[in-house]
Automatic annotation (TrEMBL):
Protein name: Metallophosphoesterase
GO biological process: lipid A biosynthetic process
UniProt keyword terms in alphabetical order: Hydrolase, Metal-binding
Pfam families documented for this protein: Metallophos (PF00149)
Lineage: Bacteria, Pseudomonadati, Pseudomonadota, Alphaproteobacteria, Hyphomicrobiales
Annotated source species: Bradyrhizobium sp. LLZ17
Length: 305
C-alpha cells in the first residue's frame, strides 16, 4: 500500500530535479497523458487456444480538476476502441485526496461508466477509498458503499466475495471478485476486532463449481502470495505504480511478503498484473507512471496458434 510518509518523501526527493519536474508531475502526467499498456501473459491454467481480451480500468478517483467527467468520458471511449471481450473495473472510483475543486457525486461518474461496452459485459469490485469515503459504512462496519450502489443502479454488477461464470464461444471461465482488503480505517474498535477488510478468498473460490479457468479481481495486490494455483490470473490496482516511479522503482510502495507488488506483471502461483491506474491518491502527482488503461490478452487463438 502507498503510505503518506513514503509518498511525500519520494515527491520531496524530486525537488533536486528542479521546478520543471514538479510542474510536469502535477500539471502534465496526471491530467494530460493516457497510455495503453498491453500484457500477453501465458498462465499454465489458461488454455492456449482460448483467446480472451480484457480491458482493465483501475483507480479512477473522480474529482475536478484532475479526473473530470470529460476525462472519464475520454477513458471510456479509448477503452471501447480496444474492442475488448470483457471490461473490469478494479475499484477506487471516489476522490483519493482533498486537493480538488469539486467532489464528483457517485451517480455522475457511474452514469459515464455506463458508456463502457463489451460483449461479456462490465464487471466491478470496490476499493479501499470507496469504503473510507463512506462514513455511514465506516460507522456501521458493513456495506454496501455509496459507490457500490451507484454502479449497480447504473447496471454494472459489483462483486464482493462473489463469482460469475461467463462463456466465450461456448467455452466457460469464472470471474471472481474479492471484497476489499482495507475496507475499514484502523479505528480502535475495528482494530480490536481484527477487522480491516471484507475480503474472504476461501469463501469466494468455494463458490466455483467446476474446473473452468478463473480470473480474480482484487483491488489491492497484497493478497497475491495467498492466491492458489487454481486461479489463472489476478488483476489488481491500488498502488498507482507508486505515483512516482524512478528507473522502474516505486519507493512509495513498501514490500509485502518480501515482494514489492507495485506495478506490472508477476508470476507467483498464478500470474498477477498490477495496473498503474488512472487517478491520484494523497497528492495529485504522477512522475514516471502515467495514467493507463491496461489491455490483457489471454490465449493465442487460431490465428496465432
Amino acid at each position: 500500500m502507498i503510505s503518506r510518509r513514503h509518498l511525500i518523501r519520494s515527491i520531496g526527493g524530486l525537488s533536486a530535479l528542479g521546478v520543471s519536474t514538479a510542474a510536469y508531475g502535477v500539471g502534465v502526467e496526471p491530467v494530460l497523458r493516457l497510455s495503453i499498456t498491453r500484457y500477453h501473459p501465458t498462465p499454465r491454467q489458461w488454455p492456449a487456444d482460448f483467446p480472451l481480451k480484457i480491458a482493465v480500468i483501475a483507480d479512477i478517483h473522480a474529482c475536478d480538476p484532475w479526473m473530470s467527467l470529460e476525462r472519464i468520458e475520454a477513458i471510456v471511449d479509448r477503452t471501447n476502441a480496444l474492442g475488448p471481450d470483457l471490461i473490469v473495473l478494479l475499484g477506487d472510483y471516489v476522490a483519493g485526496h482533498h486537493h480538488v475543486t469539486r467532489i464528483i457525486p457517485a451517480g455522475e461518474w457511474a452514469r459515464v461508466l455506463t458508456g463502457l461496452k463489451a460483449p461479456l459485459g462490465v464487471h466491478a469490485v470496490m476499493g479501499n477509498h470507496d469504503y473510507w469515503d463512506d462514513k455511514l459504512v465506516q460507522r456501521a462496519g458493513q456495506g454496501p458503499t455509496v459507490a457500490h450502489r451507484a454502479l449497480e443502479a447504473a447496471g454494472i454488477p459489483v462483486y464482493e466475495n462473489d463469482v460469475v461464470r461467463l462463456t466465450r464461444d461456448g467455452r466457460p471461465f469464472w470471474l471472481a471478485g474479492l471484497g476489499d482488503q482495507l475496507a475499514f480505517m484502523p479505528a480502535r474498535r475495528l482494530r480490536s476486532a481484527g477487522r480491516f477488510g471484507v475480503d474472504d478468498l476461501a469463501a469466494t473460490l468455494a463458490k466455483i463449481t467446476d474446473d473452468a479457468p478463473v480470473i480474480l479481481l482484487a483491488h489491492e495486490p497484497n493478497i497475491a502470495p495467498r492466491v492458489p494455483a487454481r486461479v489463472a490470473l489476478q488483476l489488481s490496482g491500488h498502488t498507482h505504480g507508486g505515483q512516482v516511479r524512478l528507473l522502474g522503482w516505486s519507493p512509495a510502495v513498501s514490500p509485502q511478503h518480501g515482494l514489492r507488488l507495485a506495478y506490472g506483471h508477476f508470476r507467483l502461483k498464478c500470474d498477477v498484473i498490477i495496473s498503474g491506474g488512472l487517478g491520484c491518491s494523497i497528492l495529485p502527482v504522477r512522475v514516471g507512471v502515467p495514467p493507463e488503461i491496461v489491455e490483457v490478452t489471454l490465449g493465442r487463438g487460431p490465428a496465432l496458434a
